[in-house]
Amino acid sequence: MKNMIQKLSLLIFLFTISQFSFAQKTAAIKGNITDGKLPVEFVDVVLKSASDSTKTANYAVTDVLGNFALENIQSGDYQLQFKLIGFKTISQKIKVSDSPISIGTIKLQTDTNLLNDVVVKSQRKQIQKTDEGFVFNAVSNISQSGGTATDMLKSIPTVAVDAEGGITLRGKSPMILINGKNSAITNMDQIAASSIESIEVISNPTAKYDANAESGIINIKLKKNNQQGINGAVVLGAGFGAKGRINSSVLLNHKTEKWNFGLAYDNRFAGRTKKINADRTNFFIDDEHYIHQNRDDARTEGLQNLKFNVDFTPNDKNSFSFEALGNLENQDNDETLYTQVNTSANQFFSSNKRHSLELERTKVGELAFNYDRKFSDDRKSLNTSITSSFNKHKENTDIDTYNYDAYKQQIGDAAWQRTHNYTNENISNAIVNYTVPVSEKSIVETGYKGTFRFFDSDFESTDLTNGEYIVNPLASNTFKYNEQINAVYGMLNSFIGETDNPKWKYNLGLRAEQVSNNGKTQNNTDNFSNHYLKLFPSASLQMNLKPDEFIKFGYSKRINRPDLDDLNPFIDITDALNPHGGNPYLKPEIIHIAEVSYNKNWENYSFSTNAFYRNAKDAIRQYAELQDNGVILLQPRNIGSTITYGLETIFTLKPFSFYDANISLTAFEQKIDATNLTQDVVKNAFSWYGKIINNFVPWKGGKLQIIGNYNSALTTAQGKRIPVYNVDMGFQQKLGKGNARLGLVVTDMFNTLESGYKNNTLLFSNNRTNKSDTRAFMLTFAYTFKSDFKEKLLENQFSTE
Hints:
4% of the residues lie in helices and 63% in strands. By secondary structure, the chain is mainly β. The longest helix has 17 residues, at 2-18. It starts with a helix and ends in a 7-residue tail after the last helix.
């Protein structure tokens, strides 16, 4: 408690200090650019001194609404220029004093000598390169803007998503943040794709970011409307796969000079089916030697999100914001599992049918308060935030099992079981980041982040005996987990050479994380406690060969702490022959990573590639172990050390005015040393995955997108996952003056998307395939009202589920 008071006091102190400069006067130029009908995005706004036109005094780019702002301008005479390929350059003289200047609306004229009418249309870049990775703008995606964030991530370059929704970067699970912060929303199916503004992939995090990001960070930024006046949009969609699905969303926003209020609601309801087939051979067990299983699943699911935000900007220097998010998810699974067991002589041994009805309900609430402080020197900044996320999850399952003889006749009475798993989780963050220049060429970033996690789970299993359900104490337990992570970091960013065109840029950082966590079960069989302080250095050096070409070298040390699913000791018994659970005795991985990247841009093409090397100690992998009773228990284990090295490449091209594409490819080799395990494991493995995103503008107001995706077989500790490949298509047509749009989405056009794995060990071999009804059709209609930002509202509102 004392530590929390000290942290809150620090936040209040920094906030109080910032108030002394509220009254500082600044000069700013604001305006809007159109083509006479619609706002124009990506216009270069250049401010040059009237006395020396070779020097750029300030620079900005118009946003999706055509707005721009140039701030912190000293008094004087200037020349203002507006440039964009396809339009004639406009210049005008302007005199700046201490008062803000609004130049109103500037209308650009088409330059017919450069481009035809198709090219003139301003399109938001699909991928924007950053120093640490890239940002994928979700508004550019119409073929996989599907039901959830999982669907959206399938089309992100360098990100691999399997048919079960498993997300990986370079073969490992990344850290996933929501609006830059840790969240109790860990299932990406709880986030509707229509609420996503952009997805940032940070492949080489610096010391500023959490060290618990072995393969990188995926930051999902949710939409936040902040446009002037009263605006809104409504989207409706319906479609079908094996079962029907519907979705809708409503966005409302009201903004004044100092206040901004936003309200958004979206939902989706869908039905799903799945078929699973599995075969296993237990080499040294004669009775339960061959096992064949097939399972039929029918699932209904619903998702609803409600988001509210209020922002207050008293002046150009200070801004305050509050956000609240509510999430409701329900999922009902009706599963029937058939199992046939034969002896080593392939004679009948046993057969049963196991039926389970699983009802899941999840409620999530998130609250966030943010404060941002700007200064006259735009290199200096202060931002703070306090967030808290609550997750309440209930899962109830009824299970009945029928045994049969070799002639399919029932043996005895059915066995009945009931289980429940109730969990409560809270994650809170306190964050302070401060950036200050220390010289003309150097700035220092420093900050603090506190992460506080509380989790408790109650798992109960009962058996029907003499008409009454009796608790099975061997299969029931409670688990309580607490974790505190206090981190501070310092980072120096500097360059060598001219300010406008530095030859070298470098970064040196150090992060210290103090971790305390403990877990306790009711029967005290799986208790643990960890307390440690670790340092995580990072460094990078960038050599700029040309203004549009550079090479970058980087190093960082990271950690992979086991998450709650990995640590929770409860065993899921839905499939009695293949139970799975967590392992509370896992140790964290320590990883050293080195990277070399190259980036080159041309007028209509861009190319970037990263060569990476990763050395991990105490690597965590899922591990299957054959028990004495013939059951295979799947749990995460520390399998030893792994070395991974590979290449990651992104290529974008726009060869024609009506077509552009993005091609990405990731390939890597893994070497595993698992001498600490008794069973054999894979020692060497090569994996790769790639995707191509094709965008067409077939005619005025029309967009067509086709995405192809392929993930090769991915190595596991004892085998490999089967390849995953699919093709998705989306089409969108503006109607009337652009206030309405019609969309058609087809997911998994050729119905090829499935998942599975094959394991081969000294004691057993098994293979398993899962096939869901992934092919679906969706038709959507979107309309804006009283809106001057219809482009922003209507994009990315087309849901497949």
